[in-house]
Design goal:
Layout lengths: L4 H4 L6 H12 L9 H22 L2 H15 L4
Length: 78
């Protein structure tokens, strides 16, 4: 790509992109997955978040807001 300005700018087909991609691939190469303890902590965090979201969505004010939004959407005139 001797006469191509795109290659000189470092966007496509240049060594800059190849080096960047090679570095990107090696960033997480040593840690390929979560261990059992990490899965346990992640599962607990997900369950805690689900419990908080459930409490928020089932609260009175949020249910009233959702009900009003749905009613307005149903009653829209086309």
């Amino acid at each position: 790509m001797a006469g191509c300005g795109v290659a000189r700018s470092g966007v496509v087909g240049s060594g800059v992109v190849r080096r960047w991609w090679a570095r990107l691939r090696t960033i997480g190469a040593d840690d390929r997955g979560m261990t059992t303890a990490e899965y346990a902590v992640g599962t607990l965090a997900a369950c805690a978040l689900a419990a908080v979201l459930y409490k928020v969505v089932t609260s009175g004010p949020v249910q009233a807001l959702l009900r009003s939004v749905i009613e307005r959407a149903i009653n829209v005139q086309f």
